[in-house]
UniProtKB/TrEMBL annotation:
NCBIfam families: yecD_yerC. This is TrpR-related protein YerC/YecD. It comes from Catenibacillus scindens. Gene3D superfamilies: TrpR-like. GO terms for molecular function: DNA-binding transcription factor activity; sequence-specific DNA binding.
Length: 96
């Protein structure tokens, strides 16, 4: 875990997220806490990660998501050298 983000404020934020009970609550909370562009950017990165795990090409991902090749590369680096958070969530979603 990256110690730079492990602060009491970040822990409280994550506690708040874990309190959300359904999709409507997620929409309400994230619309309040994020700008529209921040939320769209987060969702784009997640879609890029999912598509990379499906072995899609950078060109295909860029065309479908509108993500730049720099963003796709950053997400790919996280998938290969990060904390496996994307994979954990993607796999759990497949199980459900």
């Amino acid at each position: 875990m990256n110690k730079k983000i492990k602060t009491p404020a970040v822990e409280k934020l994550f506690e708040a997220i874990l309190c959300l009970e359904n999709m409507d609550e997620c929409f309400d909370f994230f619309e309040d806490i994020c700008t529209i562009n921040e939320l769209l950017s987060l969702s784009q990165r997640f879609e890029v990660a999912r598509m990379l795990r499906e072995q899609r090409t950078y060109l295909e991902i860029a065309e479908k998501t509108g993500a730049s090749t720099a963003t796709i590369s950053r997400v790919n680096r996280s998938l290969n050298y990060g904390n496996d958070g994307y994979d954990m969530v993607i796999n759990r979603m497949k199980e459900n």
